[in-house]
Amino acid sequence: MGAKELWALLAALRAGWCLLPQAGYLHPDEFFQSPEVMAGDILNLQVYYPWEFLSSSPCRTVVFPLMTSGITYWVIKSLQQLDICSSCINSYTLLVSPRLLFTVFSFILDYSVYRLAPSWEADRWKALVLLAGSYVTLVFYTRTFTNTLEGLLFALLMVLVSSRKPDSSLAEPTSSPLIGIVTTAGFFNRPTFLAFALMPLLYWAGFIVDSQRSIKTVINHFLKLVLCACFTAIVFITADTFYFTSVGLDNLYNIKNNSLVDVIGRLNEKIIVTPFNFLSYNLNPHNLALHGSHPRVTHFTVNGMMLFGILHVLAIGAGCKMLKQYICQLIRVKSYYHGSPGLLVHSKGKPTLLLFYFVPLAFLSLFSHQEPRFLIPLILPLVLFSTSQNRAMKWKYVIVIFNMLGALLFGCLHQGGLIPCLFRLEQLVHSSESSNHPRHYTLLFAHTYMPPRSLLNIKKRDTHIEVIDMAGSEEETLCQTVEQRANDFTCNDCQIFVVIPGTIRATITKCGVSFLNETLIFPHLSMEDPPHIPFLLSRNWRSQLGLYILQLGRNQQSL
Predict the structure, then answer these.
(1) What are the strands of the beta sheet with 494-501, ordered from one edge?
(2) Cα–Cα distance between 544 and 531 in angstroms, integer?
(3) SS3 347
(4) How many helices (H) and strands (E) does the chain have?
């Protein structure tokens, strides 16, 4: 099978696996930074609003959630209102429709590789196969993360700053306005985008200065970039201000007759600049510690390996070799000066690609909170580097096995029972029997990731369904809550369901309550409550890799 055919097969796998859908649950942010918020705002569903989207602490722009999950939810809502699809809004469409849009957007990466590969002396189709076969592309880039958008904007920026056409001839740098728009949009999406944009912007600036003889032309390029960046920032600030505050057209009309100083003062009090709030929060070490603190070398030693495997090792090896050569050059320059050292920002090929990879990695390593998904934008320069001079070919079997294991772990196993569990509970609470005989449902989740309530498809006006997230509660607290619910007879027609991983099934048995029914959803791997190795070798190994839905019985002795 040729490289083109293999890429087409992997591209079909990416789209098909999204539609299945993927059961793996990577991180709560894939739901709570976009789909969950938009499901509440557009579909009027019961959701959990994260603190970043509260008017008291606005740290996330609403523009990208509206443009992604918001649009897809508006489409399925319109289809249902027009009776084109009578039951368009269900747990499946609520999960898959935003993911499908992100999957379509993920092909921006493929386009970027196709455009950039010849300029960086990489084989175009081998690079595309390496990209499409990476589990980072198959799993992370089909999820609704802000990191995914960050990676796509980084890819677009690399295309825009590329100084060479596919035929290797020099291109006229006419992308200044677009570069300004993309950079600003990336900054509002995630302020960490500046770490990724630094090297592309320096590369572009170097090319502008080198290729233009007139200082007037150079200034014109930079002026276009700044003006478009400012205009884009105004658009984001305006949208966020309208969303998070009470500022509206009526308010603006009421203050228009006031003095200019009063108008500016009123607007200054209301204006929301979410990236500044984000930075103010995350630059405080105490705030970062609440989300988990990691050693500064975690990105280099753990996360890079976890995401990219041997490709990360090859890049580190090449980087060390390049650094050694650069130090030798500096020593020679000191003894006899022949010009500037060889490692220039606008140098062609391997050194620049390595800088595109390691400079963002170094900046992100300055923060104590380090998660693997923060590095997913780096897949583009890493793929281009790895396929130049066929560096990755000798490791192709290692790469295939690594990505198969990564796709299995993160696409299927990791918290993999929670989404199917929510699908099943959504069918239960919306079944015809429940509609004819309304009941009160209590859904208690313990030792799982935060359940996205939007997938239960519960309208805000419905009060007969209660969701309790106990996170990683201790055994005593969990048992107290379960016993309290079992002994609560104020509701005669209540059904209580407890959702727990199989690894703590024995713990819930100690609570002294009975269960009417239990359902095991397989597979489900909880890294917070990992399976016990001896049990994995027994006949009941499936229970260690499963998620239980337990229907709580009523304690008749309390009557």
Answers:
(1) 465-469, 440-445, 494-501, 547-552, 515-521
(2) 5
(3) coil
(4) 28, 5
Q: What CA–CA distance (Å, rounded) separates 118 from 67?
A: 32
Nearby residues of 95 by Cβ (< 8 Å), 6 or more positions away: 21, 35, 419, 455
**pTM of this prediction?**
0.91
Secondary element (H or E) of residue 494 = strand 494-501
**Cα–Cα distance measured from residue 62 to residue 71, given in angstroms and rounded to the nearest whole number:** 12
Give pLDDT tens digits for 47-56: 999 999 998 8
CA atoms within 13 A on the CB side of 509: 8
Which pLDDT tens digit goes with each residue over 8-29?
A: 999 999 999 999 999 999 999 9
Residue 116 half-sphere exposure, CB side, CA atoms within 13 Å? 30
Which residues, 6 or more positions from 346, have their beta carbon under 8 angstroms from its beta carbon? 163, 203, 206, 207, 210, 352
CA-based nearest residue to 137, from 126, 121, 148 = 148
Residue found by looking up tokens 């027009």 in the block = 82
Residues in CB range of 176: below 8 A, 6 or more apart? 221, 222, 224, 225, 228
- Closest to 443 (Cα-Cα) out of 519, 496, 508: 496
H/E segment holding residue 467: strand 465-469
**Lookup result for tokens 């789209």:** 15
